[in-house]
Amino acid sequence: MTITLSNRSSRLQLVLARSLHRGLLQHSSLAAVSQDAHPGLARFCLHAPTRRQLSTPSATRINHAPSLNPPSSTLPPPLVLPIRSDSQSAPRYYFSLGRAYLSFYKTGAKAVYSNWQNARRIRSRLPADTSPEQALQQGVLSRGEWLLIRRSNQDIKKVPLFALVFMICGEFTPLVVIFMSGVVPRTCKVPKQVARDRGKAEERRRNSFREGTVTTADKGAVDLETLPPNQLSHVGRSLGLYSSLFDRLGVGLPTALLRRRVQQWEDYISVDDAAIERYGGVGRMEMEEVRIALEERGMDVLGRGDAKLQASLQAWLKERKRVGAVRLALVRPGVWEK
Question: pLDDT band at 289, cuts 50/70/90?
């Protein structure tokens, strides 16, 4: 979807992104004032004995293949949290902990806005009647640029709700958004939230396979228009193409809508697979990008080593050419990876 200043919705989202960033700066300033009012607390915060950096996708990332991998600004920044010492009081610890989260969200919100600006500059190079997907296929855009535009578009849409949650919850935002992942931009997700989202997606996929919609990988490509509703629902669940709330309510998306979403997913995967191979292959992808690619293709990533993850994506690229993406989504990965 094109993001332009002439689009009223995008204009509102951009204003909210700026407001969110200013709000985070204001919270940081208030914290500084509190330190001035409490010198002892200020001394602690300025001389905190130890801090720990939680593993985040972009924490130690150096992009050696920018044409293949999108900028690290499209992923969460490092989250550095203080470690509480035995002699440290609870108020001092939680004050510094709150500041660490505020710094994280401030950096993430700033990335949403800067990514939007960079994506807009890239789009300005494209002819008016050319989509980013077409430009990628024509070699006008690299995969890294294409994914920057795509992720920026996804994040900017989430800004209004996330800004509202932050304005209401303030320093308690991390305790709230862990259960509202759908409203959080990718750049503002803490490591625990990323792991929780992946765990829930993998559990939902396993449950869907247990319902008996498994097929074999040697029957050729699937005709999406004739795919039975139960198998279509399985593809939607295993890929997270609709909310798990529908599962809990015992209902599903209308077949026509779900079929359209699966078709859009298949089109996206086809373009992305070709781009991965064109710009260097799996071996040059950053490991977090490999994980994201596997998630998007309905494959588990938790508890698996880097070599196995890369091998799985290599196997996908090979098998998709033979039987198609939808067929692979109907088969347990362990079957066709062998």
Answer: very high
